[in-house]
Specification:
With 362 residues, this protein is of the alpha/beta class. It is built from 11 helices and 12 strands. It folds into 2 domains: 216 residues, 3-Layer(aba) Sandwich (Isopropylmalate Dehydrogenase); 139 residues, Isopropylmalate Dehydrogenase. It binds nicotinamide-adenine-dinucleotide, 3-isopropylmalic acid (IPM) and manganese (II) ion (MN). The site of manganese (II) ion (MN) has 3 residues, from helix 8.
């Protein structure tokens, strides 16, 4: 029996609402699967915690998390705390502290009716973005000089180390080889004449080790256009931290919106726990109304199952989401329905339970 310890960080706004639904899915898996047993511990960290305690998480927060098998996070951010403080002291602190340098974001259209792209189908929009998740534009290096004077100058420095660049690109090549898919690098070497020239060079060097992997390289501006016009070009994408952030919101938009987009933050060497989360934020505009779409959070449970080598559960969850979308009766407002977060979550669990039970009795 696998006993898995999951740290829950609901965080802020709709993070709390959607995480609850994901936990219901985990509890369903626990109930059905005799080999899996989940233990949960919840951490009250986030902006409320900051307002009360002056910090986003405990000083030894990473120490408290380090022995968990996975971290499951809702969302972080509230108007009461500046975003750069709340995100750097919680979400980014975990990604960096646990060296989760791989961010896996699946861009998969599960139902044609959800894409705003004319004439594009499920076959056309089905790819994986592998985002560098530890350095680059998110190095946190910079300087604010002559503040408040006419001579004010602000620097935000990107850091691309050889180790950091090689490891993400190598990870992407390994994944492309394993899946027998093409690999597309997205960068911007024409304007970013240090960092992206270096990125492109490393991509070319490593590609020599993988003659079996077909490669493409696009500038990020053109790639943004192809995401919309010809998403079928992409199978596996590797890109930098910031480009990956932006492109995956675009990817979410062509597959049904942020309410369906999930991300896994992984340290592939498994020296530290991974973190699973929807890629959306705390959505202050709809928080507290019970109308947030829980499917992104639930999709991240599927990614968690894959990480735990429980691929069947991943498939069951994704197929259940597909059925729920097709059925169309329990959709939240962002998808044109009227359901509450909890109603969508409950229906998903019904579908999942039925699907697994039917499969077992075969
Ligand atoms: P957001 O993702 O919170 O919301 C953008 C839009 O998408 C809003 O209109 C929102 O209502 C909608 N939306 C997002 N998730 C949804 C869901 N599950 N169901 C239905 N609608 C959904 O982005 P934002 O408004 O730019 O940021 C709000 C706060 O969240 C900020 O503090 C930001 O820094 C933070 N943020 C956190 C994370 C994270 O924790 N991973 C990610 C992005 C933004
Ligand atoms: C995401 C988010 C974060 C990021 C923010 C909240 C720091 O937008 O996970 O996509 O930029 O990585
Ligand atoms: Mn983002």
């Amino acid at each position: 029996m696998k006993r898995l310890k999951i740290a829950l960080i609901p965080g802020d706004g709709i993070g709390k609402e959607v995480l609850q639904e994901g936990v219901k899915v985990l509890k369903t898996i626990d109930k059905i699967d005799n080999n899996l047993f989940f233990e949960f511990e919840e951490f009250p960290w986030g902006c409320d915690y900051y307002v009360k305690n002056g910090k986003m998480m405990d000083d030894n927060g990473l120490e408290q998390l380090k022995d968990f098998d996975a971290i499951y996070l809702g969302a972080v951010g509230h108007p009461s705390v500046p975003d750069h403080v709340s995100l750097w002291d919680l979400l980014l602190k975990i990604r960096k502290g646990f060296d989760q340098y791989v961010n896996l974001r699946e861009i998969t259209l599960l139902n044609q009716s959800l894409t705003p792209l004319k004439d594009k189908s499920e076959e056309d929009i089905d790819f994986l973005v592998i985002r560098e998740n530890s350095e680059g534009e998110y190095a946190g290096v910079g300087e604010w000089m002559n503040k408040g004077t006419p001579e004010e100058v602000v620097l935000q420095t990107s850091v691309f180390s050889r180790k950091g660049t090689e490891r993400i690109i190598r990870y992407a090549f390994e994944e492309a080889r394993r899946q027998k898919k093409s690999l597309t690098s997205i960068s911007k070497g024409n304007a970013l004449n240090y960092s992206m020239v270096f990125w492109d060079q490393v991509f070319n060097e490593i590609s020599q080790e993988y003659p079996d992997v077909k490669t493409y390289s696009y500038l990020v501006d053109a790639a943004s256009m192809y995401f919309i016009k010809e998403p079928e070009r992409f199978e596996i994408v590797v890109t930098t931290n910031l480009f990956g952030d932006i492109l995956t919101d675009l990817g979410a938009a062509i597959t049904g919106g942020l309410g369906l987009a999930a991300g896994a933050n992984i340290n592939p060497e498994r020296q530290f726990p991974p973190m699973f989360e929807p890629i959306h934020g705390s959505a202050p505009d709809i928080a507290g109304k019970g109308i947030a779409n829980p499917l992104a959070a639930i999709w991240s449970v599927a990614q968690m199952m894959e990480y735990f080598h429980e691929g069947n559960w991943k498939d069951y969850i994704i197929e259940s989401i597909r059925v729920l979308l097709k059925e169309g009766r329990y959709l939240t407002r962002d998808l044109g329905g009227k359901s509450l977060t909890t109603e969508t979550g409950d229906r998903l669990i019904e579908i999942l339970t039925q699907m697994v039970t039917e499969n077992k009795s075969k």
